[in-house]
Amino acid sequence: MVKELVKRGAKVRVLVRKQLEEGKLPTGVEVAVGDLLDPVSVEQAMQGVDKLYLLNAVVPDELTQGLIAYDLAKRRELRHIVYHSVFRVEHFKDVPHFASKLAIENAVREFEIPFTIIRPNYFNQNDATLKDALTKAGIYPMPLGQVGISAVDIRDIAEAAAIALTSDGHLGKTYNLNGPEVLSGPRMASIWSRLLGREIRYSGDNMDAFEEQMRKQGPPWSAFDIRMMFQGYLERGFAAEAGDVETLTALLGHSPRRYEDFAAETATLWKP
Length: 272
Prior knowledge:
46% of the residues lie in helices and 11% in strands. With 272 residues, the protein is of the alpha/beta class. The strands form 3 sheets. A 4-stranded parallel beta sheet has the order 3-4-5-7, with helices on both faces. The chain has a two-stranded parallel ribbon with strand order 1-2. A two-stranded parallel sheet has the order 6-8.
């Protein structure tokens, strides 16, 4: 995202919780150290800023963090805010971090600060963490079900957000950011089977087992949150809606990146 903004000639300041190592950001990018739960540090970071890209981490107090940043942006009368929400957010009110994003969206829409909302689907790059499951266990473990999702590449998300911040015609718009294909769990497994040259099995939709595995990797609240998200995928689907891909293609000036191309790049990196 920062690279895309710099590429378009924007002067960028990022808010980070601790000072970054040299070379982590492009030359010329300003760094403000603070915390989204500390309004004083957030307001200091906004001094001299006219536009805001608001992306909150999935944490228990995501709603509080988001509203602090938004309320301060409103107080300082920023010219534009691009809020990073999530696809089909209004259909997933039982998922904690979706519910937080929906509440922030409602605040963004209610008041007068100019806004654009982007709503990405599941990230292609989420699956970059699956090396051991795919290459050692021979399974695709994400419970995406039979209906499927329209996974989107984070590079397309970064481009879309930067375009919305640096060009005209996006105020008041909501963009669904979806990839060009609907991908089921078995389809994902078949893609990896071909790329890795071995059978990769889809491990199915056992949500109890999935949540148990997530508890080994993070806190219990996060495991439950993620479980509810994937359960929503199974029950309600997460496929692109009519016109989404065409709208994103027009916004980007190119077709959205395919999951299979991401997977091929990733498989190449995994080779000895």
